[in-house]
Amino acid sequence: QVQLVQSGAEVKKPGASVKVSCKASGYTFTSYYIHWVRQAPGQGLEWMGIINTYSGSTTYAQKLQGRVTMTRDTSTSTVHMELSSLRFEDTAVYYCARLYGGNSFGNFDYWGQGTLVTVSS
Amino acid sequence: NFMLTQPHSVSESPGKTVTISCTGSSGSIASNYVQWYQQRPGSAPSTVIYEHNQRPSGVPDRFSGSIDSSSNSASLTISGLKTEDEADYYCQSYDSSNQVFGGGTKLTVL
């Protein structure tokens, strides 16, 4: 069965960086795009960006350009999302999600369990 | 930038029907598929409608989706409301290089 399993919760200081991982299983890793979505406490869903797991190419939300980096390791079927220069407002649950049908944009058919990143001094 | 606007909250009684709207800011909302996600507290979102009006397996047929090009909006309709339908609902679509979410609608079933 398809699973996306994310790394555990993190607490970081302002200005630091955080790296969250998302390990995929149960399907051919390089056949599906992976996206990252975050949700601040009590707020809505915010799209962060997409990685083509076959080529490694990425597209990031304009708001996060320059601070976010997404990479993939095909040997372990894992996608990583690194966010730098952390601010208090980056406190959120971070989700990885698979895009349905091998498309680049559209429906997310599987989600990771979420990783809470807390930015606190 | 393309945006999707939803009502902040709706409420209805068990057994009734509720409709949640999602209005596109520009272009034709029918041009790119609209999805609807349900999110319960402490859980990841899950799809209840994809590609405008398709239901994933396991989603009851009480959930339906539609597009109204005249108002440039998508709608999620839930009939025969159950208390378990109480959750946040998000519409989602995309443009050439971004996934876009609506702000979410809190459905209260009381």
Textual characterization of the structure:
The complex is a heterodimer of chains A (121) and B (110). Chain A starts with a strand and ends with a strand. Chain A has strands spanning 3-6, 10-12, 18-25, 34-39, 45-51, 58-60, 68-73, 78-83, 92-99, 108-111, 115-119. By secondary structure, chain A is mainly β. Chain A contains no helices and 11 strands. The model of chain A has no long low-confidence stretch (mean pLDDT 97). In chain A, the strands form 2 sheets. In chain A, strands 2, 4, 5, 6, 9, 10 and 11 form a 7-stranded mixed β-sheet that branches. In chain A, strands 1-3-8-7 form a 4-stranded antiparallel β-sheet, with no helix packed on it. Chain B is mostly beta strands and 110 residues long. In chain B, 0% of the residues lie in helices and 45% in strands. Chain B has no helices and 10 strands. Chain B has strands at 4-5, 9-12, 18-24, 35-39, 46-49, 63-68, 73-78, 87-94, 99-101, 105-109. In chain B, the strands form 2 sheets. In chain B, strands 2, 4, 5, 8, 9 and 10 form a 6-stranded mixed β-sheet that branches. Chain B has a 4-stranded antiparallel β-sheet with strand order 1-3-7-6, with no helix packed on it. The mean pLDDT of chain B is 96. At the A-B interface, strand 5 and strand 10 of A face strand 4, strand 8 and strand 9 of B.
Task: Summarize, please.
The complex is a heterodimer of chains A (121) and B (110). Chain A is mainly beta.
Spell out the blueprint of helices and strands.
The complex is a heterodimer of chains A (121) and B (110).
Chain A: E1 3-6, E2 10-12, E3 18-25, E4 34-39, E5 45-51, E6 58-60, E7 68-73, E8 78-83, E9 92-99, E10 108-111, E11 115-119
Parallel strand pairs in A: 2-11
Antiparallel strand pairs in A: 1-3, 3-8, 4-5, 4-9, 5-6, 7-8, 9-10, 9-11
Chain B: E1 4-5, E2 9-12, E3 18-24, E4 35-39, E5 46-49, E6 63-68, E7 73-78, E8 87-94, E9 99-101, E10 105-109
Parallel strand pairs in B: 2-10
Antiparallel strand pairs in B: 1-3, 3-7, 4-5, 4-8, 6-7, 8-9, 8-10
